[in-house]
Design goal:
10-stranded mixed β-sheet; 8-stranded parallel β-sheet; alpha/beta
Length: about 400
């Protein structure tokens, strides 16, 4: 038989705990810090470099991992004239954030998304005759005003109309109702490592423009120069440039001489989760891949390959703790790494560890990490997982 207490418990309503407000740092053990004042400084420097030429800030791939809406807004405030993204989803994110600047979609757009692009007032890249016809069909349903830029393949071998077809496609677009043929562009394949081939592409592009120009086609925007071309070939400026990696304070090629002019925008930090001293020949991490060579003090950091910290075939090598370099030991786990701090006194739980960026007099750069993992600085910053919170500073 149920007791009186049982009866009262059944009647009682469950009490819900009050929600707790938590900052990204409280709820997640690592964070990416984005210095928007550094980004603005880089944009202003680029604007000064190109003079009256319009500047299209490339904010694809979540602004190279930096956070697209905040970066786009900061770039526009600093003087950028337009934005570029990779796809419709990225463009819609910017529109949802209240950004009304012109946005060029650089890559593939499914035919069924063209009407959405018109509604969002986006600029589409036309890269073959089939897509040109799809744009024309979508824009024929009034009222329509679809701006397009024709992308010409001058030697990249990816998306793009061949130069021999450019005139026909441009005429098709120019004569179509609801289509605004606003621009034409190409993309360099080797501006970062083979300027001679870049100049061949540029020659092909200029020759094509001359042929189209004689037939009466005119464009509001002609563009070719990405970040590497801005460093290696300012003759490719035309009247619009498309910097990407330079915006983020990173060099498009090693030793380009811009390191002192640019300000790195991104830092990646975490905290020490545990410190322990192990005796000689102690295994550390999966597979016992590392064994202590003597008595060693190790720190466990709550970050791993699920956060974008490369595990294989070549891994991150060092972090900064107390302004000193601490080498990674053992394998990178899904959400943990271990580092040797035997040479760093008084490391304790909660201490800051820097994976990318500066601490004291030491700095780990994206270029250094790129050498460790056998890649480039683009991959370093874009591979940090979206689950790692972005904190925006000096905005």
């Amino acid at each position: 038989m149920a007791s009186a207490l049982d009866s009262e418990l059944k009647k009682a309503k469950p009490r819900m705990a009050a929600p707790i407000e938590r900052s990204p740092r409280m709820s997640y053990p690592s964070r990416v810090e984005i210095d928007l004042s550094a980004l603005a400084s880089n944009v202003r420097w680029l604007k000064a470099r190109v003079g009256d030429t319009a500047l299209m800030a490339v904010v694809k791939a979540n602004a190279y991992g930096h956070g697209a809406p905040a970066v786009a807004q900061a770039a526009l405030r600093a003087g950028a004239d337009m934005l570029a993204v990779a796809n419709l989803a990225e463009a819609r994110e910017l529109r949802a954030a209240g950004i009304d600047a012109p946005i060029l979609v650089l890559s593939y757009a499914p035919a069924e998304s063209i009407l959405d692009a018109i509604k969002c007032d986006l600029i589409l890249s036309v890269y073959d005759s089939g897509f040109a016809e799809q744009c024309i069909a979508a824009a024929s349903r009034p009222p329509a005003d679809l701006a397009v830029h024709v992308k010409v393949d001058t030697g990249m071998g990816r998306l793009g109309i061949l130069p021999s077809d450019a005139y026909r496609v441009c005429q098709l677009l120019r004569e179509a109702a609801g289509i605004r043929l606003e621009g034409i562009y190409t993309h360099f394949a080797t501006a970062d490592d083979d300027p001679a081939y870049m100049r061949e592409q540029l020659k092909t592009f200029k020759s094509m423009l001359a042929r189209i120009g004689m037939t009466g086609n005119r464009f509001k925007y002609i563009h070719a120069a990405n970040s590497a071309a801005l460093v290696n070939g300012c003759e490719a400026l035309f009247n619009l440039v498309r910097p990407g990696i330079l915006l983020y304070g990173l060099e498009p090629m090693p030793a380009s001489g811009l390191a002192k002019r640019l300000k790195p925008v991104m830092s990646w930090k975490t905290q020490v989760a545990q410190v322990k001293t192990l005796p000689p020949d102690s295994p550390v991490g999966y597979g016992n891949a590392y064994r202590t060579r003597g008595e060693e003090t190790i720190a466990v950091l709550p970050v791993g390959y699920a956060d974008g910290l490369r595990r294989a075939p070549q891994a991150w090598r060092e972090v900064l703790i107390h302004g000193r370099r601490a080498p990674l030991i053992g394998r990178v786990s899904m959400e943990k790494i271990t580092v040797n701090v035997s040479h760093i006194p008084q490391v304790k739980v909660g201490d800051e560890a820097v994976l990318l960026g500066r601490q004291g007099e030491q700095r780990i750069s994206a270029d250094e990490i790129a050498r460790w993992i056998g890649s480039n600085n683009y991959e370093v910053v874009t591979s940090i997982a979206p689950r790692v919170p972005r904190s925006f500073l000096n905005g």
